[in-house]
């Protein structure tokens, strides 16, 4: 089996600095368009956002998208047309299945701290589902030298669930620790995104905020060359 890879170095991402929002886009988003970076399989958006104190996104609509938010620093206040009013904190993960349509707003509720977050969009397996909201607090100790599952297709599994045959894991490896990831579903691909530090994936070096898309594989050997945190996104390649 010959695996195929596509490397997205951190400095090749789209960038928009709106003052209140400093955003890096791994895939085409808003005013940044790159025809070679529209999506990776069902992964459509991977935004690395910093929101200034007290600022945020006004109410706006979504439909037929699975939207995952992972705060990295600070908090994000959320309000939506389903009646949810929540604060998502560092160590939480939130998902919205937009389905037939939702409206929501997100803002940084803190007057003196910025908020950093990943927002990730996946195309759903089923269109026009009833919109839903889910938020959980992770046990971050499970990420130490481990692939801690934070998302799956199954409501009774670890993490949140979505309408897609996808599995996300967060990992926090000590320098020189290595572990092998086994593919969950045949035909799926993997998008690895480094939060901090340096890792190798089957020998390919990745630094902070680098992304690597991999297809046609059954397992991946992942080693930390420094202390490193990273996100693994196993996703279907067709939608």
Task: Characterise this structure.
This protein has a 7-stranded mixed beta sheet, with no helix packed on it. It has strands spanning 4-8, 14-17, 21-25, 43-51, 56-62, 66-73, 75-80, 85-89, 92-97, 102-107, 115-122, 132-137, 148-152, 160-161, 167-173, 178-182, 189-196, 199-201, 204-206, 211-215, 219-224, 228-235. The protein has a single domain (4-236), classed as Sandwich (Jelly Rolls). It is mostly beta strands and 239 residues long.
For the structure shown, list the relevant keywords:
7-stranded antiparallel β-sheet, mainly beta, globular
SS elements, strand count: 22
Q: How much strand?
A: over 45%
Q: For the residues shown, what is the average pLDDT? A: 97
CATH topology: Jelly Rolls
* Number of domain units: 1
Order of helices and strands: EEEEEEEEEEEEEEEEEEEEEE
Helix count from the secondary structure assignment? 0
The CATH architecture comes to Sandwich
Shape: globular
In the CATH scheme, the class would be: Mainly Beta
Report the radius of gyration as a whole number of Å: 17 Å
- Poorly predicted runs are none
- Class by alpha and beta content: mainly beta
Instruction: Tell me the major beta sheet.
Output: 7 strands, mixed
The CATH H-level superfamily is: Jelly Rolls
- Largest beta sheet: strand ordering: 1-20-17-22-15-13-14
CA(first)-CA(last) distance = 23 Å
Share of helical residues: under 10%
Organism: Flavobacterium swingsii
Domain Quercetin 2,3-dioxygenase C-terminal cupin: 150-235
Pfam families: Pirin, Pirin_C_2
Family: Belongs to the pirin family.
């Amino acid at each position: 089996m010959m695996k195929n890879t596509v490397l997205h170095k951190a400095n090749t991402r789209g960038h928009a600095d709106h003052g209140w929002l400093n955003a890096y886009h791994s895939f085409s988003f808003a005013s940044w368009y790159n025809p070679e970076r529209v999506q990776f399989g069902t992964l459509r958006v991977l935004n690395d956002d910093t929101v200034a104190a007290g600022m945020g996104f006004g109410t706006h609509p979504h439909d037929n998208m699975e939207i995952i938010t992972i705060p990295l620093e600070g908090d994000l206040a959320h309000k939506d047309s389903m009646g949810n009013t929540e604060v998502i904190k560092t160590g939480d993960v939130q998902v919205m299945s937009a389905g037939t349509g939702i409206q929501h707003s997100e803002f940084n509720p803190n007057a003196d701290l910025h908020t950093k977050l990943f927002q990730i969009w996946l195309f759903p397996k089923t269109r026009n589902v009833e919109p839903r909201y889910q938020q959980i607090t992770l046990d971050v100790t499970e990420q130490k030298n481990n692939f801690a599952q934070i998302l799956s297709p199954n409501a009774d599994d670890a993490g949140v669930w979505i309408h897609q045959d996808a599995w996300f894991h967060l990992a926090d490896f000590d320098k020189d620790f290595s572990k092998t990831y086994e593919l969950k579903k045949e035909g799926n691909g993997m998008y690895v995104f480094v939060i901090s530090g340096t890792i190798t994936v089957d020998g390919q070096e990745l630094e902070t905020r680098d992304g690597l898309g991999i297809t046609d594989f059954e397992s991946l050997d992942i080693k930390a060359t420094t202390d490193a945190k990273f996100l693994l996104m196993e996703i279907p390649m067709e939608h």
